[in-house]
Design a protein that fits this description.
It is built from four helices and three strands, in the order ααβββαα. It has a three-stranded antiparallel β-sheet with strand order 1-2-3. Strand 2 and strand 3 form a beta hairpin. The chain is globular. The two termini are 19 Å apart. The N terminus is likely disordered.
Length: 88
């Protein structure tokens, strides 16, 4: 559970870390900088949305799923702030 998360729903350790330390915007900016041209990333609450240039989108309910997808698709690693804090 994440004490910093509204509703107290179960979340991953990475999401809890982001919320606890208030680094969501830092993570978002770092990931956006690595995306290929035409792709966009937004975050609302604990939900992350990845949009392609054609308008299709994928919704990720947890940052770990998004990080896995970005690494598999484009070899984008977890942002440094997460690597230092959590060993990702």
């Amino acid at each position: 559970m994440c004490g910093a998360c509204g509703g107290g729903r179960p979340v991953s350790a990475t999401t809890a870390l982001i919320n606890q330390h208030g680094v969501k915007n830092t993570v978002l900016v770092a990931l956006r900088a690595e995306l290929p041209r035409g792709w966009a990333l937004t975050a609302q609450g604990d939900t992350w949305v990845l949009r392609s240039a054609t308008g299709s989108q994928r919704v990720y309910l947890d940052i770990d799923d998004l990080l896995h997808e970005l690494f598999q698709r484009w070899s984008i690693p977890a942002p440094a702030v997460l690597q230092r804090s959590s060993g990702l």
